[in-house]
Amino acid sequence: MASASADPPAGTVDQAAAPAAETTPQYRWWVLAVIGVAQLTVVLDATIVNIALPSAQRDLGFSDSGRQWVVTAYSLAFGSLLLLGGRIADLFGRKITFVVGLFGFAGASALGGAANGFEMLIIARAAQGLFGALLAPAALSLLVTTFTEGRERARAFGVYGAIAGAGGAVGLLLGGVLTEHLNWRWTLYVNLLFAAIAIVGALLLLRTTERDRSATLDLPGTLLASAGLFCVVFGFSNADTHGWDSPGTWGCLTAAPLLLGAFTWSQARAERPLLPLRVLLDRDRGASFLMILIGGGGLFAVFLFLTYYLQQSLGYTPVETGLAFLPLIGTLMVTAAIATSVLMRLVGPKLLVPTGMGIAAVGLAWMTVLDLDSSYASEIMPTLLVTGVGIGLVFAPTMNLATLGVAAEDSGVASAAVNIMQQIGGSISIALLNTLAADTLDDYLSTRDRNDSSVLAHAALESYRVTYWWAAGFFAAGTVISALLYRRGIPDQNQGATPVHM
């Protein structure tokens, strides 16, 4: 059904798109399985190592501040190099970029698992981020160019969105099992298994595209974008560990908008820009990028602070914590599939995405009533079910719309922009919410006995409640913003990127 508004139809193909559409390959659903395994490898790595950090710290003997750098080293390399990785996939071919990313990620994981000291672990985590920045946009751009028919594209993005949303919870579960029954090194070694499966599938199923030898890399744009994104991720990460008044924090957060503003100015004038502005300026696409940023921030809050609550307030083991997230994973996956294959065709994004944002806000607000003696079955699980439904209604449709209508030659960089929004949303959320939680904890204890274990337990609980309220506020803001920005009507799901031989 066409859009009912006077605006151009949602998902209109950019003029740069190739005119002819080819039939998608017979093995496209196997390609989806390969892409799914690769995406899961990248997404779960954001959380799987977190559970293992205390064990790694005891084994390698690094400080508490070093734990943050194990996380930050990955985030800095991944977040700052995503746009470059996306454009490399467009210029040099999606298959070769995908396979190189998998090999590199596996090698970096093996190095980290074998680390004999803190420095070696940090180098391995940074290398994981570097190769993840090649792998993640290549995987999504392969999805974009493989599935172009409306119904199939919707189903494929339902699966992909479910993996992107639930991967963090899968990482918590798998990390808990591996740490508890093997040791922390297996949270890195397990990537070798996922990578091997994806590499074999890629080599068997994907065909190499011919490189456009006239295409060149926008070097000034690359430097500006990488520096700007580095400053964003580092600034918020530094705020989490050193506070907002640290020179490293305010210096980077001041430089970031200047660098990214200069990058935008350069892209409007470059002959072959790193990120063509046409990718961002479509109304539905721009709204989807913004919703991914907001949703990513809220989702990280669920994983991080609910994990703290389950382990520190209720005494769950790492495995029990991971299992506790299964209802969220299940509802998210089912809802994501229904949202893209059914609901998007019935109501369109202007109703669907705000509804999902609103439901997620309710789920987070509901978490504020959790107490030190809350029952899992009757009190905790319902909040996870509601939150999973809300996030499922948001993530898969927005990832679909963020790449809908993008020309095949821009699919890699558009896919990178999707990953950047999720990464930046998470960085901002973690820094802001950790600061709010710490301030709440200090305020609560300022007039109470800090040596009383009961007081400490209630202080921690109060800090978690503040973060749930703020995360609910993120989703509530997303409800209003998405309702205002999205066009009325149903996007044409067949307006995808022109498929290419892989």
Could you characterize the architecture of this molecule?
The chain is mainly alpha-helical. It has one domain: Growth Hormone, Chain: A (Up-down Bundle), CATH 1.20.1250. 77% of the residues lie in helices and 0% in strands. The longest helix is centred in the C-terminal third of the chain and has 35 residues, at 411-445. The radius of gyration is 22 Å and the shape is globular.
List the helices and strands and how they pair.
Blueprint lengths: L27 H33 L3 H29 L1 H20 L4 H29 L3 H32 L4 H20 L13 H24 L4 H23 L8 H4 L1 H31 L4 H7 L1 H22 L1 H19 L8 H28 L7 H35 L7 H33 L17
Helix pairs in contact: 1-2, 1-4, 1-5, 1-6, 2-3, 2-4, 2-7, 2-15, 3-4, 3-6, 4-5, 4-15, 5-10, 5-11, 5-12, 5-14, 7-8, 7-15, 10-13, 10-14, 10-15, 10-16, 12-13, 12-14, 13-14, 13-16, 15-16
Keywords:
Growth Hormone, Chain: A, single chain, disordered C terminus, mainly alpha, 502 residues, 0% strand
Helix content: over 70%
The counted number of beta strands is 0
Number of helices: 16
Main beta sheet: strand number and arrangement? none
Instruction: Spell the H/E element sequence.
Output: HHHHHHHHHHHHHHHH
